[in-house]
C-alpha cells in the first residue's frame, strides 16, 4: 500500500491528501509534524532528503514532490488525469505553473497574514505591496482561462484544479483580493464544494486559525 508522509495543515500536504480522497486511492497515513520540524529528523530525511512534506513511498519508489505524487496516483484516474497526450499535457502545464509561479506568490500572503500572526508577529505590509502586482497578474491569467473553461483543463475537475486551489486554502485569512478576479473566485467556490476539499479543510483551520 502507498505510504504517505504529510502534515495535513501545510499547503502541499493538503493538496495531496485532497487528491488522494478525490481519486479514491487507498493509502497509509504517516503524520509528520511540520511545526516541530519532524521533517528534519534523521528518519524522515532517509525518505525525503529535501526535508519537506509531503512524500510518498510505493515499494522501492520514493516520491518527494506534491504534484509528482498527484500525477502518480492519478495515472489511471480517468478524467482527473486524462490519458490523451494533449489533454494530459494541458494538465501538466498547470501543475508546473502552480509550483513555479502560483504557490510562491500565494505563500507570501499566507506567511504575512496567517503564519506571522500565529507566531505573534506583525505582517509586513511592504512585503504584500511588493508582491501584489505579481499576484494580480498571475490571478489574471487564471481568471482569463476560467472565463473560457469551467475548470482549468476543461469541463471536468482534474488534479490541476486540486493543485491550484491548495495555495489559496485560507484565502479569506490570506486576504487574497479574489473580488478583482470573478472567474477565479467562482471556480474556487466550486472546488470548495468538493467532498475531498471539505474533508481536508478542518485540519488546516484547526492548525492555522486557532480560535476562529
TrEMBL record:
Pfam families: GST_C, GST_N. Transmembrane segments: none annotated. GO terms for molecular function: glutathione transferase activity. Its EC number is 2.5.1.18. Residues 1-81 form the GST N-terminal domain. The keyword DNA repair does not apply. Residues 84-212 form the GST C-terminal domain. PROSITE patterns: GST_CTER, GST_NTER. InterPro entries: Glutathione-S-Trfase_C-like, Glutathione-S-Trfase_C_sf, Glutathione_S-Trfase, Glutathione_S-Trfase_N, GST_C, Thioredoxin-like_sf. SUPFAM superfamilies: GST C-terminal domain-like (SSF47616), Thioredoxin-like (SSF52833). It is an enzyme of class 2 (transferase). Keywords: Transferase. Belongs to the GST superfamily. This is Ure2p9. It comes from Exophiala pisciphila.
Amino acid at each position: 500500500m502507498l505510504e504517505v508522509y504529510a502534515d495535513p495543515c501545510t499547503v502541499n500536504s493538503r493538496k495531496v491528501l485532497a487528491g488522494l480522497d478525490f481519486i479514491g486511492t487507498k493509502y497509509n497515513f504517516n503524520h509528520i509534524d511540520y511545526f516541530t520540524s519532524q521533517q528534519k529528523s534523521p528518519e524522515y530525511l532517509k525518505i525525503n532528503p529535501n526535508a519537506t512534506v509531503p512524500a510518498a513511498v510505493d515499494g522501492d519508489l520514493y516520491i518527494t514532490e506534491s504534484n509528482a505524487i498527484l500525477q502518480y496516483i492519478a495515472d489511471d484516474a480517468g478524467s482527473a488525469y486524462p490519458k490523451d497526450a494533449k489533454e494530459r499535457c494541458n494538465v501538466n502545464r498547470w501543475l508546473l505553473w502552480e509550483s513555479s509561479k502560483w504557490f510562491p506568490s500565494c505563500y507570501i500572503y499566507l506567511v504575512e497574514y496567517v503564519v506571522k500572526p500565529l507566531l505573534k508577529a506583525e505582517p509586513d505590509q511592504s512585503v504584500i505591496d511588493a508582491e501584489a502586482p505579481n499576484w494580480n497578474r498571475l490571478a489574471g491569467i487564471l481568471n482569463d482561462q476560467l472565463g473560457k473553461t469551467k475548470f482549468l483543463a476543461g469541463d471536468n475537475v482534474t488534479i490541476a484544479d486540486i493543485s491550484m486551489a491548495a495555495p489559496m486554502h485560507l484565502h479569506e485569512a490570506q486576504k487574497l483580493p479574489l473580488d478583482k478576479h470573478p472567474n477565479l473566485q467562482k471556480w474556487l467556490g466550486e472546488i470548495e464544494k468538493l467532498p475531498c476539499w471539505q474533508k481536508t479543510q478542518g485540519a488546516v483551520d484547526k492548525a492555522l486559525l486557532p480560535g476562529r
